[in-house]
Amino acid sequence: MDQFSIFVPRLVTTKEYFAPGHRACIGCGEALAVRHVCKALGKDVIIANATGCMEIVSSALPTTTWRVPWIHSLFENTSAVASGIESGLKVLRRRGKIPDKKITVVAMGGDGATCDIGLQSLSGALERGHNFIYFCFDNEAYMNTGIQRSSATPYGATTSTSPAGKKGIGQITGKKNMPAIAAAHGIPYVATACPSYPFDLFDKVKRAQAVEGPAYIHVFSVCPTGWRSAPELSVKMGRLAVETGVFPLYEIVNGQYRLSMDISPLRPVIEYTKVQGRFRHLTPDLMEQMQVRVIKTYEELKKKASG
Amino acid sequence: MEAKLLMGNEACAEGALAAGVRFYGGYPITPSNEIGEILSSRLPAVGGRFIQMEDEIGSMAAIIGASIAGLKSMTATSGPGFSLMQENLGFAAIAEVPCVVVNVMRAGPSTGMPTLPAQGDVMQARWGTHGDHPSIVLCPSSVREVFDLTVTAVNFSEKYRMPVILLMDEVIGHLREKVTLPQPESIQVVERPRPDCPPEWYKPFEDTKTGVPSMAAFGDGYRYHITGLTHDSMGFPTTKKDEVESLIQRLFRKIRQGFEEIMLYETFLMEDATAAIVAYGCTARSAKSAVLMLRKEGMKVGLLKLSTLWPFPRVAVESLPEQVQELVVPEMNMGQLYREVVRVGHGRFRVKKVSRIDGELITPQEIIYGLKRRERK
Predict the structure, then answer these.
(1) A75–B33: do the CB atoms touch at under 8 Å?
(2) CATH code of residue B275
(3) Mean pLDDT in residue range A198-206
(4) Does B210 fall in a domain?
(5) For residue B26, which residues of chain A lie inside 8 Å, CB to CB?
(6) A119: nearest CA in chain B?
């Protein structure tokens, strides 16, 4: 699979399958991620998209941003829809109704659609072993409905349903470890990625496309609107999240963890949180707690990768 | 109390707090988000609990659980979420668990138009869950009424031990109006009947005079069985035909006996009317202004505004003055309550419908046109 690690800007296609002119907010990390993912996937692809920001901003009538076959399903069922598409294609191919070429089936959703409401359907599809790629575009809350917490919201972040105040610190639980849940299904390929590292993202999409069976890619998507950060910092914030260890980039190939980049030493978490309004209320004490949490999870991850 | 500028969803949250709701389990969905957002900070302040669940199935199940544990509980959602709640709603109906579900209606089916109003869930609120079951569905048409009906919904759910649905529409949910809320001490709050017998005498689903058995909370010392299976008076599953029949009959009887109280409606300028508009929710507002416009023209038109949609307040239609010949039912759906008006009218009225399903409000002019229009033969 390693032949995909030669991406250089010159060799990346100039074709866009996620067209400009969509209605995403300024500095949307998710739109950038989807654009890169679509570039990497190429044109022989069918996408099932859960309800969420991406569905709303990309498909407002009478226009569409998608230059590939695309279906908006519901909030909770995108993996099931993708399962159906994959099985349908299999039958058509077997009966000679369509040419025998590889068509990548893709399901995508936000963190709410993946970690909360769609987890059951995703788990079912991973367990059945459909040959598809699932992308979770994680912007760490329900941004489309007005910034409500999800189970991917990080510790300490304030959202409209986990408000910080005199007594509350905002979100009191940590982020659900979705890549580990996906990997626990024993699927061949799981990865985390971030559009701030486009070539790493391309690489991982290509690898997911090459494997037989389900693949899961968790893409960190900066959301300036929901995180109360400056839109021009989006790409930089993706890098900061990776460099501080908040969102480490790694792959799990057939159960084997592998760090995509081992950062040592990690930058202090405060560099990442201080530019975001959602962490503004955090006291130095809580910041310290957060730093400890991040280092702990990063060390654990490193141990898994070395073992 | 001083006047406030309140949004419908805010008034709903205020009403819930005033009625004693102390548990909210919800899931984000436009256009009902504000209710959950407000309660997420207000409930902990009064010793309550807010949980954001992983989906609407979870929300509904959580409020059932909280209610069995003894708290007044509520959730709010909209179309797609309401569809997901249906199975649990049926459970709450047969297990007789008091709870309130707020559905801020948006245009459907499916994802539909999340930010635009509709009244398409009227029949779903009645028949959404499978099986024969009674239901109470209330529908406010102003911000103050949202507050009042939220309190009423909680009270009805406690009194009759059943889920009560508050159907708002997007217009009412997001409408801001000047509202004077009632003094907290003037608000009537009902508590569920609790057992006062020794635990070994307790029959959790006993037939009583009102048809409503007393409800012990988990932890009160009363051991009993709760199930979604059809059960006998002890709560244990049964398929004996007399026990099954008496359970379902009792579920209906408790509503029938309270019908007078449950049936909420208002009439406006009806005394001398020869025609009437039957409306609910946001369309009742257009209907009222249509009545005033027609009165100016000299037409004798009245308004029947329904606040209770189910059980359908048939008495309200049947008791319209003798000289009323014509009814018009404006609705933001293809005519769901219209059929009900035709049914209880028994051919006494000429009933017309005014439907609008494009996400825009029905205007008074459209209602006037609908009333004046002659039926094509």
Answers:
(1) no
(2) 3.40.50.920
(3) 93
(4) no
(5) 161
(6) B54
